[in-house]
Amino acid sequence: MKKYIDPNTLDTVTVDGKNYKVYTYEDNVAKFPYAKVLICYEVKEDGFKSPLYLISTDNLLDAQTIIKYYSYRWNIETSYKYFKSNLAFDKYRVRSSLSIERYFLIVFLAYNFLELFRFNCRKQGLETIGKVQEHLNCLTAKALVCFIYGNLKQNVALEDIFVKLKIA
């Protein structure tokens, strides 16, 4: 459907300072007796971003409100997905509510540390938390290689290095 829509001919909707060109379709959609489908193109200086497809079953909401709700919801969803995929949030094996709460707090602290690190290093091109994790992993790997190299230069036996690393 996107190939038949020219974003330049669509209505402009502004949400949180961003402009979108929006196509709205209202009718039966799949199993929904009534739904509002939005095809939204974020306006950029050099054209349009790839469209976002949004759906709402609340027929009282206008396009601006639907986009605003999704923008808030999207941050929550991506953070939760990140918690699960990169910080093992879905891997906890505890049962008491106190243990679950503690586990969540540890994961949340790790996430906030990564966000703070990302904010402080934004000039280095670390735009996402995933990039921050890659960067920190590289620093850790470099430190490990330097540690091993330094010990080998001092003629420390490999078995002794394993003991120091607690992997003997």
From TrEMBL:
Pfam families referenced in this protein's UniProt entry, alphabetically: DDE_Tnp_1
GO MF entries: DNA binding; transposase activity
InterPro entries per the UniProt record, alphabetical: RNaseH-like_sf, Transposase_11
GO BP annotation list: DNA transposition
SUPFAM superfamilies for the chain: Ribonuclease H-like (SSF53098)
Domain Transposase IS4-like: 55-113
Protein name: Transposase, IS4
Organism: Clostridium scatologenes
Lineage of source species: Bacteria, Bacillati, Bacillota, Clostridia, Eubacteriales
